[in-house]
TrEMBL record:
Belongs to the peroxidase family. Classical plant (class III) peroxidase subfamily. The record marks R55 as: Transition state stabilizer. It catalyses: 2 a phenolic donor + H2O2 = 2 a phenolic radical donor + 2 H2O. GO terms for biological process: hydrogen peroxide catabolic process; response to oxidative stress. Ca(2+) 2 binds at T185, D226, T229, D234. It comes from Lupinus angustifolius. The lineage of its organism: Eukaryota, Viridiplantae, Streptophyta, Embryophyta, Tracheophyta. This is Peroxidase. The keyword Signal applies. Ca(2+) 1 binds at D60, V63, G65, D67, S69, E81. The active site is at H59 (proton acceptor).
Length: 309
């Protein structure tokens, strides 16, 4: 099957605080090129990093805002977001570490970890065939990371109405929620997140049988959320869930709930529309709760807060 990869370019017409497109053009002109090059090396070795980075970015922004608090390692005195249940299977930390080490050699104490997550995710989406878009930078890194704060994250067994309350609390709409969940087109999950619904009548019989065999294995492998084109950022996820092939309950519910099924059908028919909407939604999500100007800090190591006197 041949796929046509379309390219979209979006530019924010305004600045948030001191945030703007090309924020590092003077202070670290090579920043975005360096981030893209490191992501490309990892992508060439493992195309699943797109889904991993998307999940990291989403889990970061929806807790304390897009402040890289998800990257902090726990200490004896603090259990960080990274150790919380919803983040146990988040992947891609080594990519962020590699980017940060390289940038610190070129432009010390200049590029924030929050911007690295945002830009690395954008680049990984484009590498998988998704939209290309410009995004404002100038985020600063947060000074708090607490495992208990992750309770807000929607779970794989959420219903549409439950997940929507969380998205609305972050300033996002129903349309944007359905759009952002389209990121599952390049994601995968594990049996413990869906094994309770293998006899669900809203799950395709053949897929259910396949998943039962997979989950019966010792150390079962991950399961793709898009059973058609799992490494291509396209609209096939929406076609899959309309055919009752949504692995997670929340995915299945998107195609069943009266409030969301219309947009699911629209995206299933029109991949170009989905890609444009996705870029817009990612730009908006990337501005949730950002720290800018003199708030927060620029971490020297993304895993630890800077030492302060």
């Amino acid at each position: 099957m041949k796929f046509t990869i379309l390219t979209f370019f979006f530019v924010l017409p305004f600045a948030l605080g001191d945030m703007r497109v090309g924020f590092y053009s003077s202070s670290c002109p090579r920043a975005e090129d360096i981030i893209r090059q490191v992501v490309q090396r990892h992508f060439n070795q493992d195309r699943s990093i797109t889904g991993g980075l998307l999940r990291m970015h989403f889990h970061d922004c929806f807790v304390r805002g897009c402040d890289a608090s998800i990257l902090i390692d726990s200490t004896n005195g603090n259990a960080s977001e990274k150790t919380a249940g919803p983040n146990q299977t988040v992947r891609g930390y080594e990519i962020i570490d590699n980017i940060k080490r390289t940038l610190e050699q070129v432009c010390p104490s200049t590029v924030s970890c929050a911007d690295i997550i945002t830009l690395a995710t954008r680049d990984a989406v484009a590498m998988a065939g998704g939209p290309r878009y410009n995004i404002a930078t100038g985020r600063r890194d947060g000074l708090v990371s607490n495992a208990l704060d992750t309770d807000i994250l929607p779970g794989p067994n959420s219903h549409v109405s439950e997940a929507l309350k969380i998205f609305i609390s972050k300033g996002m709409t129903l349309n944007e929620m359905v759009t952002l969940l389209g990121a599952h087109t390049v994601g995968f999950t594990h049996c413990n997140f869906f094994s309770n619904r293998l006899n669900d009548t809203n799950l395709d019989i053949d897929l259910a049988a396949k998943l039962k065999k997979t989950c019966a294995k010792n150390n079962p492998p991950p399961v793709f959320l898009d059973q058609s084109t799992p490494f291509v950022f396209d609209n096939q996820f929406y076609n899959q869930i309309l055919l009752k092939r949504g692995v997670l309950l929340i995915d299945s519910q998107l195609a069943l709930d009266p409030s969301s099924k219309g947009l699911v059908s629209t995206f299933a028919r029109n991949g170009d529309n989905f890609q444009q909407r996705f870029a817009d939604a990612m730009i908006k999500m990337g501005n949730i709760g950002v720290l800018a100007n003199t708030d927060g800090e620029i971490r020297n190591n993304c895993r630890v807060f800077n030492r302060r006197s």
